[in-house]
Structures
1.
Amino acid sequence: MAVYIAAGKFNGGTKSLLYFMSALELSLDTAAHAYVDKEDVECVMISDARALGSTREGRMARRQHQLNLLEVTETAEGPFL
């Protein structure tokens, strides 16, 4: 049963947990549905952030951020000679 739940969550997101709970005839309230919606939105946001980070623009922005941090450190502490 745990394998079915894990596979359902992987393939269908958190909403599949509601289907399993419904099949087991467990009572669900609106908090369960709100939780599932919140979890799915967070999952999509994380996925979008990962996709953006893997684009050329994302890599360039990350590299520029690293260079800016290095420049600030060098300015504060002086050159490393």
2.
Amino acid sequence: MKFQVKKDKVIRTMELPDEMATVLNAKKIAGKLFQIGVARQKLFVDGVEQSDQTKIQPNWRLVMEELPKKNALKEGEEEVYEFEEEEVYYESENEDTTYESYGSGSDDEISAAASSSSEDHQMPNIYDM
């Protein structure tokens, strides 16, 4: 079945098998030709919008109307980006934890202190969050 789709002043003749000649399938084909997504199309026949399940009649001229993008800027508007700064900090369960620098103490003391750390005093693993 042949039919036409008109958008602005451009008219395209399309053809679909009779069993597939629905408005939704016409939108899919027209969308590829006019590069407009199906959700942003409305097809009219004689000024009446057609639903997606409507069967197309032979020699119909469907008039396509493109809906504006939801977030499209109106003429003269500018896009403004606002970013909020987020403070990130970690609270220690044990407030009086002291850390010795590696410069003080012998190597034996440092390795002993490192190996004796218990589960309660470990820093939170940032990869587990």
